Amino acid sequence: MKDTIVSKGPKVRIVDSPIPEPGPEQVVIKVVVSGSNPKDWKIPEWLNKELNTGDDIAGIVHSVGDKVWEFKPGDRVASFHEMMSGGGSYAEYAVGWQHSTFHIPKNVSFEDAATIPLAAMTSAIGLYIRLGLPQPWTPATTQIPLVVYGGASAVGAFAIKLAVLSNIHPIIAVAGRGQSYVETLIDRSKGDTIIDYQKGDDAVVQGIKDALKGEKLEYAFDAVSEHNSYLNIVKVLESKGKITLVLPGKKYEGIPESVTQSITSVGDTHKSASNFAYVYFRYMAKGLGEGWFKPHPAEVVPGGLEGIEKALDNLKNGKASAVKYVFKIGDTPGVKSSL
């Protein structure tokens, strides 16, 4: 099969690899569409490693392990691939674990499904495990102000969508070029608003204060975690408040010791949060099918696997806003479409 190796740069080369075999609780998926994430260029850069960094799978089940009971060959599925392991999504075939795989509803495209796995689960872990906020099936009954910094990013946007399902308001979304998209997610009648970070740090801090209208800010989801984002937040956050951040291996100087800070790692899906992920992926699939949970806007990059390098370069250079780059594997020269 055609496989992809991403190295520092980002540089991408397409190689031939054997089709993977599933472990007992794994599924091998013929990839129709792969999503992408900023970590896909960052990991080779940070760790100086070469690997298939794709983790968002949407496709058709090819084979299943002997302990897999929920899926069978031919099923339309999406899956969050275990990061840093073999069988990534930038290939003709990829590997997913049963618990982090879900059925794609009939009314949902592979392109839309590919926007869900990594980003939406990051948001769920951040909101409900790290910040401990009310879950959608036991929604908030009183006002809970929440700052979502980076509201147009996939992680930020999914955090807003889930917060709305949990009746968490007012949502104070900090965004830039993607404000028009964020506007479609919030409910201004419940006090939600958008702060434009392009106006500078002082304007962001004042904007958050104004949006609170005297309420205390106790929760913040920082989906950016750089460029002073968390420093702006803690100027408004209560001294005993909670902030969750998304970039690992970084010292977040300037956050008061009294503030509870945490790192939201979607890698917990394949570690301590496996049961949580199992439930939430199926909840999201239900929402996709019934129309009350929406995917992130997807942009199909031409060329299939050959388009990955350009897309990762765009991510590195901050060119993506309110969009998830996805790749149709069948568009790769020399690869036969699975549809």
TrEMBL record:
Signal peptide: none
Keyword Oxidoreductase: yes
UniProt domain Enoyl reductase (ER): residue ranges: 9-323
UniProt entry keywords in alphabetical sequence: Oxidoreductase
GO molecular function: oxidoreductase activity, acting on NAD(P)H
Superkingdom assignment: Eukaryota
Presence of the UniProt keyword Cytoplasm in the record: no
Annotated Gene3D superfamilies: Medium-chain alcohol dehydrogenases, catalytic domain, NAD(P)-binding Rossmann-like Domain
Subunit structure: Monomer.
Protein family membership: Belongs to the zinc-containing alcohol dehydrogenase family.
Protein name per the record: Chaperonin 10-like protein
